[in-house]
Amino acid sequence: MPSRQPEEAKGFKLLGHDRSAAWGGGSIVEVHKGYAYVGAVGGASYDGPEGFTAHDVRDPRNPKKVYEFRAPPGVHCHKVRVVGDHHLYVNSERLVGDKGKNARAGLFIFDISKPDEPREVGFYDTPGSGPHRFGVDNKRGLAFLPNDAPGWNKRVIWTLDIRDPLKPEVISIWGLPWQKSEGNGEGNDPMPAESAITLHGPPMIRGNRMYCAWWGGGISIIDCTDLRNMELVGHVQWSPPFPGSTHTCWPIGDRPYLVVTDEARARQKYWDSQFMWIVDARHESNPIPIATFFPEREKYFNRPGRFGAHNILENITTEGPWANIVFLTYFNAGLRAVDVSDVLRPKELGCYVPELPDGQDAIQSNDIGADEHGRLYLIDRAGAGMHILEYTG
Asked: Would you say 174 and 142 are in contact if contact means Cβ atoms under 8 Å apart?
């Protein structure tokens, strides 16, 4: 019997599949020393547990779930990051409304020296609703949390010193100047859902510049020469007229161009927005969008589920076999490989859309990770779990 929606593969080869990853509905994946850690979207547009799972992927053709962590009541923990060689940070974000009012917000800290037996060894408390899509820069020993803070409206940048993973220390808290509040500030993040000016993340540093996405507030370029005294260099915002949801901002290697995604939202599809942008940052004080990319709308738009961009592989290199290639998750259009060597004309090189499993209404490719062998880990948020891929070009 033919599949309701067969696999689409151009330039990609499927190596393995584990539908149990994050109980089917996943978010960020981190792969470390042959093990994949997958945060779960839980009840966020999926009916699954809150927490994360760990998988032995040393044999990519036969991945095996070896561990699961179920979050305490009221907690959403869909973001995971490896810290150093032996630790894993997992966000503890309060669920919306009464469900999360008594939950503890911050970061769970796990020891993963035995990767199939993660062990909780600490917790870092934060105010408000807790961190969302945080980032870790292991080379610099830094973490960047999108989190509420007194005196600011919505989430702002918490920069932490994590050289001792068990004792994170705040270096600075910084937001866009117009987020500053005279009082405690406004939380209830990220409401209104499309236009709130709030850090989404994760911020990243290249040289002495930090690049950030601010949901309804566009993107910013920040001078972070002194992390305790950061200064805004450039900013651009396209909401309105576009509906915002700016998710990720990432430079193309050492080139003066940025890849930016606007996340497709669950409530409404947009024919002409929520795609991937290329931003020209040659004049940092005046960054300008110069190109967009989206897959074939006529083919995917009317399929069930979200149609639009989400996240990228958080490493766009200008050297090696993946030079100038963006690996972009696009919800019901799966994973796209996009050549940005000509920044004015992004060009699709390949795609992978998983076969639609029985009992699932739509493919919703959510996040993408990679390991040291160059294998890619595609995470679905609607039931299909984790697909392990080889990019063949």
From this structure: no
Distance of CA 316 to the CA centre of its chain: 14
Q: What is the pLDDT of residues 102-116, one digit of tens each?
A: 899 999 999 999 999
CB burial of residue 121 (10 Å; 0-12, 13-18, 19+): middle
Cβ–Cβ under 8 Å, residues 168 and 160: yes
Q: Which pLDDT tens digit goes with each residue over 37-62?
A: 999 999 888 989 999 999 999 999 99
Q: Is 282 exposed, middle or buried (0-12, 13-18, 19+ CB in 10 A)?
A: exposed
SS3 breakdown of the chain: % helix, strand, coil, rounded to 5?
A: 5, 45, 55
Beta-carbon contacts of 10 under 8 Å, excluding residues fewer than 6 positions away, are 350, 351, 352
**SS3 state at 205:** strand
The architecture CATH gives domain 8-391? 7 Propeller (2.130)
What is the rounded CA–CA span in Å between residue 227 and residue 16? 42
Closest CA to 329 of 276, 252, 253: 276
Question: If we measure between CA atoms, which residue out of 274, 314, 315 comes closest to residue 295?
Answer: 274
- Looking at residue 69, its amino acid is F
Distance of alpha carbon 87 from alpha carbon 391, whole angstroms: 29
- Cis peptide bond upstream of 256, omega within 30: no
Boundaries of every domain in the chain: 8-391
The per-residue pLDDT for 100 is: 86
Helices (H), the chain: 297-300
User: Which residue from 269, 115, 281 is spatially nearest to 206, judged by alpha carbons?
Assistant: 281
User: How far apart are the C-alpha atoms of 261 and 76, rounded to whole Å?
Assistant: 23
- Exposed/middle/buried for residue 184 (C-beta within 10 Å: 0-12, 13-18, 19+): middle
Q: Give yes or no for a cis peptide into 202 (omega within 30° of 0).
A: yes
- Report DSSP state, residue 298: H
Provide the 3-class DSSP secondary structure of residue 274.
Answer: coil
